[in-house]
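Hey, I'm writing a tutorial for new members on how sequence and structure tokens pair up, and I'd like a real worked example in the thread rather than a made-up one. If someone can provide the structure for the chain below, I'll link this post from the tutorial.
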Amino acid sequence: MRRNYRKVAASVALLLLLWLLINVVFQDSEPKSLHIGDKVDVYSLMKMEDEVMKLSVQHLDDSDSNFIKSSIKESSYNSLNMMTFSALDKFPRDGVISWNEYLTDFLMKLGVSLDGTKEKTDEAAKALNRTMKEEIMGLKAAWFESVRGDPDRLNIDEFLAFRHPEQSHSFLLKIVEDVANILDTNGDGVLNLGEFTELKLDDVSMDNFALRSLFDKDLKTLFKVVDIDGKGTVNRQELLAYLDMRNPIHARREARRLVQTADSDRNGRVSANEAVNKGPEFLACRWFNPDGFQKSFMCTKFTKRDILFIMDYVASLRKNKRTTLERMEKFISTELFTDVNLHGQRYSAEKAVTDLSHWAGKDSEKDWRKYPFSIASVQTFKPVNIGDSFGPTWATHWFKVIIDIPESWKGETVHLIWNSSTEALLWSEDGKVVQGFSCVDEPGREYYVLAENFAPTDSRRVYFIEMACNGSFGAGANAIGPPDMKKEFKLEICKIAVFNKSAYSLAMDLEILASLAREDPSDGFTAHKALFTGNHMLNLMQAGKTDEAHKVAKEFFKDKQSKSLDFTVVAVGNCHIDSAWLWPVRETIRKCARSFSNAIRLMELYPEFIFVASQAQQFEWIKDYYPSLFTEIKGRVKEGRFVPVGGTWVEMDGNIPSGEAYVRHFLLGQKFFLEEFGKKCSEFWLPDTFGYSAQIPQILQHVGISNFLTQKISWNVVNKFPHHSFVWEGLDGSTVLSHFPPSNSYTDRVKVANVVELVKNYSDKGRASQAIMLYGFGDGGGGATQDMLERRRRLENIPGYPKLKPGVPSEVFDQLAKESKNLCRWVGELYLEMHNGTYTTQATIKKQNRRCEELLRNVELLLAMLVVHESVDEKLLKKWQGIVTVAWKKLLLNQFHDILPGSSIEMVNVDAREAFEEISNNVGKVFQEISERFFGTGRDGNLLLNTLAWKRRNVVKIPRGGNTRHVNVNEQSAQQDDQGTFIVVEAPQMSVVQLLQQPMPEISVKTEKLQNGNFVLSNAFLRAEIDTYGRITSTKLSGSSKDAICQESKLANSICIYDDIPLFWDAWDVMDYHLETRKILNAPNVEGVKMKPARILQNGPLVSAVEWEMSFGNGSKLSQRIILDAESPYLIFETNVDWKESHKILKAEFPLNVLARNATYEIQYGHVERPTHANTSWDWAKYEVVGHRWADMSECGFGVSLLSECKYGWSSDGNKLSLSLLRAPKSPDANADIGAHAFKYALMPHAGTFQSANVIQRAHEFNQPLKILHGAARLGKLAGAESSWIEVDQRAVILDAVKLSDNFKTHRAVVLRFYESFGSHVPLTNVTLHFPVKAVTACNGLEEPLKSGGLKLNSHGASTSFAVDFKPFQIQSFLVELF
């Protein structure tokens, strides 16, 4: 508590100075006594105090002026109330104030005017709404209680009675009369000592604490104080003078006495030390008002006992804050004055490592995994020298380091210091990971503690260092630039040194003290005490009194828990590691080892240190590549100090993955955490993803997670997100407790500035009492450092700051759950107003992702149905499941939030494309093997697979040269082209059937060329007119006169190019100003564009097509076939682009004849509406948005949809709906999207709503065409008249996944996952299973049965059905148990 007393000493001395000045001012004139009935001349008194203040402040340091002025205002005359009265008594200055004058001032302090309009802040306005009514009513009541005359006006005495009844002149007169009447037993009008000591507080009206405290003393001693004239009696005037705080008599006399007593050097002034020595006497003085110090001490409460202790810090001699502060900062500088400052003393002895040798494998830059420790450590190492360079980028170099520690270093802390200008990993001689080094971007990670207390018996050490030729953020020429592939890295340092703990500790002390002095937003007492404490420490250190300097620092930083703010910040160590970004995936594996081993080493030194890490994939890498480190991690997990968080396989993109992929992230992630660590994660951890789907809250609920953390929405460039702790409500109404760390970062350094920023930013003050600080180097990994942990220790309990304690995220979420009734609610998506170019960048990866998602869905369906209908060898089943699981893991890894969005370097993108190709090949082989096992080989015929849960009639193409000898083709009902034969087929829902040609539809498709040169494609559903530039000039539904295309423009399917030059984040951002650079390419007479006019390519009867081409820009080419088949309600745009542009974005735009204030876009398991207007900043910030397979604009009775097979970037403006096709950023991948692209989109006008028009089903079909298989011999084993496996009787309910349960070996079950797609209540949806079923149980996304139990089954011969209700957009999963 001693440091609290230091805070007060200077203030005590300054007040004494004030009293001394008062004495000087009035020493030549004896003050006039106040008598009963006298009135105080408030304006004269105010003038007198202004002079006193003016004289006093001349002697004060400028930095103390605010504090002193505050103290003076709360001093003996209680002038704060006087000043308030004077300020309120405006015009006329008639010595009274009106109710309106007072109320206006009161409201202004709350930030509003009398009419309630906003004047200061939104928070103040909210405070008014909550408290105004009762506050004003209470004030009005107190006002009338104080009135003696005019009820609308108060004089000074009445005002004091209103503000402080104990200072009201009339109230004090009553007290005096009561005391005199009760105690004056002899009736002589005065009180003698005997009468005075009979005073009982309960006998008079002294229920006011301030007055009672004046008499709560030894009455004999008090009698002498009250007896002003020293005649041995107390009269009424003397008693009133003692009670009246406005009477200056005793203030001056007491000031004289205390100054004379304390002024030991007789220089007429009282220094801080002199004041402290007389602390008890000051407290005994009734004019000393401790309450006056509270505001200056950042609302910290001090007791009298606190101030009795002597303060031992010393203020700087000169009163210049800047020089004192910079003195402290220079004393810990890493660059200036290192020959004399603490940084230069960090190591007291050093020794170069001379036994240093090197080996590198050939082409190690291609993959370090070719040369693991077991191979590298047994090679022949050759000597190298400090200053040698190594490379190229991404290469691996191994060093053998033999260390001999001098015996003279016995008992010392010894460090190994390494700097190779890169990241590196330290290995023990026996092949165990020790610790990572990072020598470029992360100060504090360049040393390893060889010994805490060196013993000479352990002087010789052998280590290996694995040097990775890259920094923490790769090897780019700039922050996000492509890597320099020929970069060399210099070995700068390899030495051992004696760590000077004392110098380091003092340096950390001074860093925090200087930061408190510099960063404190209030510039209050804590800041100045920190400044003076640091200065005092420097003086002690430079006088050779280091031990005393430590004591001074210890006194400052010791526990002040009771005086910190009533707000707790839980400091959580982390090392956000991008699974790929400016480095390839393979380097991330080593980043994990370096970062996680650092955390383990810090835990050995700091028992309170808690570290969290997400992404099961990264833990699996550690398990596979660094088993000894994984064992250490498991031990710390058991202790609760190394905490897995997130529950997902990786930190995926928040917008593009499908709903099923989202569920699989949790299924595989939580399974890993449960199997390896015995526990699942309770929070979804996604701090760095580029926006968050509106369906996330329900997905989290479906996988058993109740909490969500991110901070990325703080990156918004237009609107500030209004919450940090809130309830997030998703698409279906599901909620999740959400927290954004208020410092808006996951890489805090635990600096004072971080804490100040956190408190300033926190938007839910008063609603929640805790927040999270995420600290540690991140993105490229690294994590916490010793400096960060030392800072946290010192900042744990600083007056006026929040308590900063170590902890785990669940602590904060548990507290937020208790306070959830106070939290605000956000409904819908968390749209990031930035990085919207990631919906389009790296188009090939996005296309591969969707194809692989669909392929995995289909192979799982086929495998499940095979197992349902046939006995499968356990070994073969395990093989297939293993391949599928590995494929899912690869897919999920490539959904990481810098891979799938396209914001990584070229190496990452090349690897991702190869991984997707590998998934496609491996899973494709499994699909073929299952198909042959299920249905036989091609010798048996041809089959048609429908993986969707509704009946389909489509035109399919049998490739030329394919096995079609068992297809009886009626040439009159077919259409031939160079590649194959088109026929019409039908397939029941979710089935495999014999491929049979269906009759030609009554209305075939045809192509016409009009006289104006345009073309018309028409079928039974629609009629579309196309001009020679490939633009749609008209589209009408058959039998309708309403055109879907806006006739004012007639330019649908306008291929437009825009300049795409963001502010900084090249691959990430499409800025709003790109919309100002629009250029239509497929239009007449466009400069730089060469058109090949449209021509008829096919002319029915089953397929019609028009083809057109153009070249533009830097040699780019686009060709497009506009296709309509006889069974399709949509017009297909089959597009090929050879893209060679730079910083451009290509879009297809469709101005529609629809009045829609919102457009609808598909997302995971549902759809969302977004505005087509720019009414508010929240609206116009969404100029580029994400969507999956379709988007729609509709008015009552009519609408138009666009379907997409692989594009995710959309925009809507008024009646224009646009699809973003390609981008061309140059960083961090200089060749992003350059090359050939093939993709399709489609235009679908419809009557009614998009739900009634089956737009959702058509979009699924557009993405998953019917698949032709070979074989037919085993079809007879399928049950059901139509050979369907599963039937769903409601169109709104989509069966999205059918798979074997994840633990099928022990629990034979098939998992079915459905979602309601229309946004409607669907009661009694009947699901019919055409295979033997034992039971059906509702489960969550982790395939854990729900408490609701099993469902009622209805048998229908060999089939079984069950009924279930669906709420809007609801996801439901079921375990179908097999016999």
